[in-house]
Amino acid sequence: MIKVTTVLSPDELEAALRSIGAERYHNLHPFHKMLHGGEMNLGQVQAWALNRYVYQQGIPIKDYAILSNCEDKELRNIWRQRIFDHDGLGDDIGGIERWLRLCESLGLDRDYVKSMEGVHPASKHALETYINFCRRAPLLIGFASCLTELFAPKIHKERIAGMLENYDFVDDSMVGYFRERLTQAPRDVDFALKYVKEHAVTIPQQQEVIDALYMKTGVLWAQLDALYLAYVSPGMIPPGCFVPEDHQAAAAQ
């Protein structure tokens, strides 16, 4: 864990934040290594897409929570683009709809996905933890918690290449969400990182910024821990959660 003992320069602060991703971003999780490496069956990929939907639909809610602590109109106008990216605006269907189409292409029923009925409770609790953190956090810390976007393009590139190459049930039309994020995430992080580097100027502020990124990487990692235990080993699917075999049998009827 990074402990700030002297004020870091803006570049030193950025280096510290990037080191967290190199150590703790969820592209390093065994579940994602299996997913991107073609080591999963259809049911396991369905379970991942279903559970990840909880996080995807919660992103605009998280961003509204952050904006509830923002009194600056100009900052709100910049940040709300993130909400449009996921909720959609005009001709852009948005990231949530793209994710629903991915789930449908994997054979999941749209209404079932939207109901979140079969989602692992740990996925729900992880998202709730993140949203509540953003609701209570000062604006600077809320912005800092979003800096996992520093590392997002790498995971999206891995996912596009790995899933297209390794799964015959995935085609190019199904990875639209990830392609959009290749341009959206760098734009978002340019703003958030610049803001954090300019406004985290004391030891307590810099420590809080670093701790916020630790928290966020923990949220993403915890979701995958739950999925690994439920759908990989030892197969501990909680009562009421998505069971691939049952879902596929019902779809075949």
UniProtKB/TrEMBL annotation:
The gene is pqqC. HAMAP family: PQQ_syn_PqqC. This is Pyrroloquinoline-quinone synthase. GO terms for biological process: pyrroloquinoline quinone biosynthetic process. Keywords: Oxidoreductase, PQQ biosynthesis. Pfam families: TENA_THI-4. Residues 15-225 form the Thiaminase-2/PQQC domain. GO terms for molecular function: pyrroloquinoline-quinone synthase activity. Pathway: Cofactor biosynthesis; pyrroloquinoline quinone biosynthesis. It is an enzyme of class 1 (oxidoreductase). Belongs to the PqqC family. The keyword Oxidoreductase applies. It comes from Candidatus Terasakiella magnetica. PANTHER family: 4-AMINOBENZOATE SYNTHASE, PQQC-LIKE PROTEIN.
